[in-house]
Amino acid sequence: MNIDQQTTISRIKTLTELHGAPGFEDNVKDYLISAMEPYVDEFVYNRMGGFYGVKRSKVANPKRVMVAAHMDEIGFMITNISKQGMIQFTNLGGVATDIWQGQRLKIKTRNNEEITGVVANIPKHFRTGSEGAPKIEDLMLDIGCEDDASVIARGVQIGDTIVPDTPLTQLSDYRFASKAWDNRYGCLIGLELLELLKDETLDFDLYVGANVQEEVGLRGARAAAELIDPDVAFVVDCSPANDMKGKQNLSGELGGGTLIRIKDGTMLLKPSFRDYLLEIANDQKINHQYYISPGGTDGGEIHKARIGIPTAVIGVCARYIHSTDSVFDIRDYFAARHLLYEATKRLDDDQIQTLQYK
Ligand SMILES: [Zn+2]
């Protein structure tokens, strides 16, 4: 079973262009549920908004394996509509303050309509030179309205969310620019894992899905882990690369393959799990690189849930994430997908036992 590369690219376009700020992930969830539906037996839902497709095994008392993405992306929430028709907002997730002026962002209204605007900035001609980077609360989105009444007439309200308005662009043979590769990467790899496993019968029940609100502090992950109570979990997430002037330590290099994430601010990779992944990567000649990050993933919550859940992150890195555009290399995606596919397919009761207690 293989997936045509154009199918993957068109899924990347759809997924990365969807509007899914933290807490407002419904558009992403609706797309994923309909795309995963042919490959799963049922869906389970937690009460925070996360969902998982379940591919049942034929064995009695099967173990449970979880593959967890997050559906949300960094964004903003509207806090004020000024008399002049300008829109002010607060951030949802961690963003640098100095990259937003002059950028195009899009609002999602309560009727699920998208409205594009430009973040206001003072033209160079009128600057004194001492402006510095504005705080997020001083930024304003200009959607072309002359006053507050016309903004409201278009359906925009306080509490609505905003994300970058960035179409997927292919930059070169293997590299693309998009918003939200963190973490529609994870949504895509989960969907394609299910498709690749379509004709396989597994020794365990496989739960593949996505959590909400990762970007505001891993808030959706625990509800998912406690609902499923998995024996093993894979977290699929996209991490920042810092290789523009050459690779810096273990901070990720585009085209360097999937990430073997041995340490981050929320989790250490168990040695037995590390060795399981390395053995597969070496055996299958899957391009991979060690990765260390001060940040974290939903793995930070999942591995501590219940009595402890052996968890590994199967990731990729991308440049400039948490901004309007990330740049990523699709070969890294294929390496990650190959590793996740093999690491899932090879699991059986003995291997799971080893990952749990060694
Ligand atoms: Zn992120």
TrEMBL record:
| Keyword Hydrolase annotated | yes
Q: Give the note describing cofactor binding and stoichiometry.
A: Binds 2 divalent metal cations per subunit.
Q: Which UniProt keywords apply?
A: Aminopeptidase, Hydrolase, Metal-binding, Protease
Q: Which residues form the active site?
A: 214 (proton acceptor)
Names of required cofactors: a divalent metal cation
Signal peptide span:
none
Which residues are involved in binding Zn(2+) 2? 182, 215, 322
What family does the database annotate? Belongs to the peptidase M42 family.
* Name recorded for this polypeptide: Aminopeptidase
